[in-house]
């Protein structure tokens, strides 16, 4: 059942992509991936701007095209925004980038896989080939949480490829959002008898707890920012397992991927974007709002045009913020 059956309905086409880039990844994840593509009513894709949706941790792209109770999935949201004239028609791709470690940060990692390359060089290339959308100057990327991180980092690394980006509640200010988890990660690992045994128990558990998911998330971050292909699942933590003291050289590798650090050296490229949007809830439970404020201040200092907003909410269930970002991206690319 659609929330508003009166809105003209676009369609979602699905195809599978056999990735050469993800083949033989260290985690053993499948290289065949599902890609969903939204097309507005009356459009086959030709000439439309292309947006790519990077979802948050524990999700894969097709979760945003699934039916949603008491709300809209992203295609229904797009139908409404386009039908009411709030945004021009766009094509939107939803790639499956899920991993055994629960999610993705959409950068290249020797442990997780080369998901930066996968998104740009395989997903976008194939979507554009099939549907005739996107192309130079007409590509945008958006996401929330880990997806927001992916969007802002892709914009920082590849302003020649992307022309617009929206970062909703993205991971940044790493010392605030990650380090506080390390004591409970160490306790969980010690109790299980090591990372490998912890993960085996996690996979066998029919009902993982919220704490389990947070431990898994920190494993995924370690395998993303400072991968060790010789370690179980590529995971090595940035702290001493006995004292929880920070290991400086390992933490430095994490910090190289903090958007606040990347922006210090790469912000100039963001001036090439047609639209950059950043927002965060003012009571985000992961304290990401403080990183967002720092990014906003840094971008102001460096003269990077952008739209920054804070809203009265936390980190959870904030898809409604797409009502703000998606029209901005679509108008900038049309």
Top CATH class of the largest domain: Alpha Beta
Going by CATH, the homologous superfamily of the largest domain would be Alpha/Beta hydrolase fold, catalytic domain
What distance lies between the first and last C-alpha atoms, to the nearest angstrom?
31 Å
Label the CATH architecture of the largest domain. Answer: 3-Layer(aba) Sandwich
Largest sheet: 8 strands, mixed
**Low-confidence runs of at least 5 consecutive residues:** none
Number of domains: 2
In DSSP terms (H or I, runs of 4 or more residues), the helix count works out at: 11
User: What is the H/E order?
Assistant: EEEHEEEHEHEHHHHHHEHEH
Strand content: 15-25%
Report the mean per-residue pLDDT as an integer.
97
Helix-and-strand structural type: alpha/beta
User: What is the 3D shape?
Assistant: globular
The third-level CATH topology of the largest domain is Rossmann fold
Helix content: 25-40%
The spatial strand order of the largest sheet comes to: 1-2-4-3-7-8-9-10
SSE diagram, text form:
Blueprint: E1 11-18, E2 32-39, E3 50-54, H1 74-83, E4 91-95, E5 108-109, E6 113-114, H2 115-131, E7 139-144, H3 146-157, E8 164-168, H4 174-177, H5 182-192, H6 195-204, H7 210-225, H8 248-255, H9 259-270, E9 275-281, H10 288-301, E10 307-311, H11 322-333
Parallel strand pairs: 3-4, 3-7, 7-8, 8-9, 9-10
Antiparallel strand pairs: 1-2, 2-4, 5-6
Helix pairs in contact: 3-9, 5-6, 5-7, 9-10
């Amino acid at each position: 059942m659609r929330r508003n059956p009166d809105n003209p309905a676009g369609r979602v086409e699905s195809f599978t992509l056999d990735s050469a880039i993800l083949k033989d990844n260290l985690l053993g994840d499948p290289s065949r991936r599902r890609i969903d593509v939204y097309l507005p009513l009356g459009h086959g894709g030709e000439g439309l701007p292309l947006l790519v949706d990077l979802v948050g941790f524990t999700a894969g792209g097709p979760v945003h095209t699934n039916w949603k109770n008491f709300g809209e999935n992203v295609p229904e949201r797009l139908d409404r925004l386009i039908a009411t004239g709030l945004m021009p028609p766009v094509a939107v791709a939803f790639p499956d980038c899920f991993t055994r470690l629960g999610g993705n940060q959409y950068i290249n990692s020797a442990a997780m896989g080369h998901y930066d390359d996968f998104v740009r060089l395989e997903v976008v290339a194939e979507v554009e080939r099939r549907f005739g959308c996107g192309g130079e100057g007409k590509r945008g990327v958006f996401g929330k949480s880990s997806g927001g991180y992916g969007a802002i980092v892709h914009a920082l690394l590849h302003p020649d490829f992307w022309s617009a980006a929206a970062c909703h509640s993205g991971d940044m200010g790493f010392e605030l959002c990650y380090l506080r988890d390390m004591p409970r990660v160490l306790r969980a690992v010690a109790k299980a008898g090591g990372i490998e045994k912890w993960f085996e128990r996690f996979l066998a558990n029919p009902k993982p707890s919220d704490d389990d998911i947070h431990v898994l998330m920190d494993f995924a971050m370690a395998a993303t920012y400072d991968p060790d292909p010789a370690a179980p699942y590529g995971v090595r933590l940035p702290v001493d397992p006995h004292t929880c003291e920070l290991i400086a050289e390992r933490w430095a590798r994490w910090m190289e991927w903090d958007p606040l650090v990347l922006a210090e050296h790469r912000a100039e490229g963001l001036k090439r974007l047609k639209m950059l949007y950043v927002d965060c809830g003012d009571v985000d439970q992961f304290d990401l709002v403080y990183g967002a404020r720092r990014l906003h201040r840094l971008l102001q200092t460096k003269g990077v045009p952008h739209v920054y907003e804070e809203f009265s909410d936390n980190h959870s269930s904030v898809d409604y913020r797409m009502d703000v970002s998606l029209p901005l991206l679509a108008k900038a690319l049309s």
